[in-house]
Amino acid sequence: MLRDALPKDAEGQIDLSSFGVFATKNGQVLACSDSLFSPGDKLAISTTLNNLDPGEELTNITPLRGHYYAIGAHASSGYREYKSETDSYKNDVIALVGKELCVMTENREETEALPCPTVHSDRGHAETTVEIAAFRLGDEWFGIRANQILQAIDTKNITPAPGAGADRVGYIMYEELPIPVFDIRNIVCAIRSSTEQMNRKAQQVIVIEKNANTRFGVMADALGEIPEIHMSRMNALPNALGGRELMADAAIAPDKPGEECLLLVLSSDRLAQKLASGMGEPSSGRAQKLIKV
Asked: Under DSSP, is residue 120 helix (H, G, I), strand (E, B) or coil?
């Protein structure tokens, strides 16, 4: 069952960099698709599993055994020996699939700048290309399709939104209309960095346009290059690892794969859907349309 659930390549062969496990809610492994884990082993990501209710699922990118993995997990909702809330006893089980992304880099000093992964540009080639704008959040670099970005602006005119939640920073005026600004580290970063405290003077707001009616901003600690990438180099992330709950929909291999991490490409559509509850709607007409998902 576990092996059948693993991602497969175009020829239908199992992706050997992936694994599947059945585990209890406290992270104890019951079975694994290969020898990566043995029954009785404890998963280092067990704290996230503890919060899953029956039938609930989660996706994330997490460090595990010296590598970053894209993770998709689903809690049982009751089947045969795996009982549900309505049965006389409970025997919760979590089905989890992981896909290796890259090796973790060594910890850096807080004052050391983290370089962007080196991704060469394919500008000038005949194949269909897409421009990817790189930006840094804490100790991690991400990309987003440049045609979804309107502008990068400074943060000095952000108006805080008290009580809006930890992820929404506030509002900023863009083209004479207020748009919400978010700190998306909690939903896209694999680990929280010791250097992640906000330094508004150094940060910028990336203004993203999902469509004509939806604009929002995300905080960036630094901006990188905008290479032009062949579509063939955009590696789609498997749907088996969480589908649209995973904020990245593609990954680009760096020029030095032994030394640098993949560059994960975030989807503006998935970000907008995830942040929809934090996109407050002003009462006036056009402003309301511009931030409605």
From this structure: coil
Give the DSSP H or E segment for 274. Answer: helix 268-275
In CATH, the number for domain 129-290 is 2.40.50.180
**Owner of token pair 């901003």:** 217
Domain spans of the chain, in order of start = 3-103, 129-290
Alpha carbon 73 to chain centroid, angstroms: 15
CATH architecture of structural domain 3-103: 2-Layer Sandwich (3.30)
Query: How open is the CA angle 279-136-281, to the nearest 5 degrees?
Result: 5
**Per-residue confidence of the chain (293 residues) as pLDDT tens digits?**
888 888 777 777 887 788 888 888 777 888 898 888 888 887 766 555 666 777 777 776 676 766 777 778 888 876 555 555 565 556 678 888 888 776 665 544 443 456 777 777 777 666 688 899 989 888 788 999 999 999 888 888 888 877 766 688 899 999 888 999 998 887 887 655 444 444 555 688 999 988 777 899 999 988 888 888 888 888 888 765 554 567 888 888 877 766 567 788 998 888 888 887 655 444 334 433 444 33
